[in-house]
Amino acid sequence: MTFGRHDPDRRDRILRATLDVIAEVGVAGASHRRIAARAGVPLGSMTYHFDGMDALLREAFTGFAMTVVTTFEQRLGAARDLAEAREAVADLVHDLSRGDEGNQRSIVLTHELYTLAARKPAFRELTREWMRRSRVALEWHFDPVTARQLDALIEGLAIHRALETEPHDRSLTIEAIARITAGTAAPAAPPASAPSAPATPSAPNAVR
Fold first, then answer.
1. Does the residue 206 lie in any domain?
2. Which of 21, 28, 131, 151 fits a 20 to 30 Å CA distance from 174?
3. Cα–Cα–Cα angle for 167, 171, 175, nearest 5°?
């Protein structure tokens, strides 16, 4: 456990530990004591750095949600035409629903956030901003109505694939995207500020 005054990373460790604990035992099982033990900090650090559990949860989940948004922006920002944008949407569905251990953690965190937002309206601002940012990235290639439909498709298919014992294959995803985007005009290029995709894109730490 790290004690003492010179611990500049303490706040970030608490945020990371919060997500780790939630992934293991859910929001209902997360406590200041359990998170402090995971972060290796004194219990008093919890209330020193965060004004209560809701404030801690909001900040931890905001960081988590933004990792997913960044992945949307990287994938869609790298697409150079409509065909590549459709492929990027399919990539998002399949990356977000991968069955490896790291992505299973993200799936759990996503569902924990949704449940929290359903119970506590204050957390809906967080999920609403997440959805807004995702749709903005989709609108680099698709009109706003189509972008909204694709955002729902990405989420729905990713959840279904993640929870199915026999997930559907990519051909079904491609067909669904083609149906939604049929007749879509070729878009303008994404804004110059759109992030580029990494050389070997990896799935985000989340399911959205």
1. yes
2. 131
3. 115
User: Which position has the token pair 């920002």?
Assistant: 77
Tell me the C-alpha distance between 92 and 207, whole Å: 9
Is residue 105 located within the same domain as residue 207? yes
Rounded CA separation 79/83 (Å): 8
Sign of torsion over alpha carbons 189, 190, 196, 199: negative
| Angstrom distance (rounded) from CA 17 to CA 2 | 14
Task: Give me the CATH number covering residue 14.
Answer: 1.10.10.60
Verify that 18 and 108 share a domain, yes or no.
no
Task: Classify residue 183 as left (phi > 0), alpha (psi -120 to 50) or beta.
Answer: left
Domain carrying residue 134: 62-208
Q: Where are the beta strands (DSSP E) in 63-188?
A: none
Residues 1 and 83 in one domain: no
Q: Dihedrals φ, ψ of 192, to 5°?
A: -60, -25
* pLDDT tens digits, 123-172: 999 999 999 999 999 999 999 999 999 999 999 999 999 888 888 899 99
Q: Domain for residue 56, yes or no?
A: no
Half-sphere exposure of 176 (CA within 13 A, CB side): 19
Q: Are residues 93 and 176 in the same domain?
A: yes
